[in-house]
Amino acid sequence: MASRLRASPARHPPTRPLPLHDAPTIAFYSTIEGQSDIFVINADGSGESNLTSNPDGGDFGLDWSPDGSCIVFTSDRDGDREIYVMNADGSAQTRLTDRAGDDGFPRWSPDGTKILFRFGRPAFDVFVMNADGSGQIIALLLVACGLFEPWR
100, CA 20 to 30 Å: which among 16, 23, 74, 122? Predict the structure, then answer.
């Protein structure tokens, strides 16, 4: 499988590979197997694994949790784009958002307690929620109240 990854960039380039902090593991999403799925691979090209392999839709737009234990991502497996989280090994895939319209581009807070994401298309709002999906609020309200410090 790793040789397929190295041979595939001209046809299906891995998109936005994200190394797991200082560990030799990289996560990425790609259409290597025909639809957009999330993969992990060791930095040396070995151990490629498809974490999401979901025939009902694409999985993309991922971010590692700061401690490396989870991956937050966007999926359209349930009809429109929603935010999901899973363990780093692909287990416990859990939907965090559930609303009509597109949720996407999730990013973890530096302390791993919150997830920032955008909602809407083509115009959108930026939301923040707890890591378990609760407490969803428009982030701009938090900025206006002085309760939100931008993440770097």
Answer: 16
Q: For residue 109, give the amino acid letter.
A: S
Give the three-class secondary structure for 2.
helix
Residues making up the chain, counted from first to last = 152
pLDDT single digits (tens) 53-95: 888 889 999 999 998 899 999 999 988 999 999 999 999 999 9
The DSSP-derived string for 32-95 is TTSS-EEEEEETTS---EES---TTS-EEEEEE-TTSSEEEEEE-TTSS-EEEEEETTS-S-EE
Torsion on CA atoms 84, 29, 115, 43, rounded to nearest 10: 120
Residue 135 and residue 58: Cα distance in Å, rounded?
26
Residues 6+ apart with CB under 8 A from 34: none
- Pair 90, 51: CB distance under 8 Å: yes
Residue 100 has what DSSP assignment?
S
- pTM above threshold 0.85: no
Domains by residue range for the chain, with CATH: 2-103 (2.120.10.30)
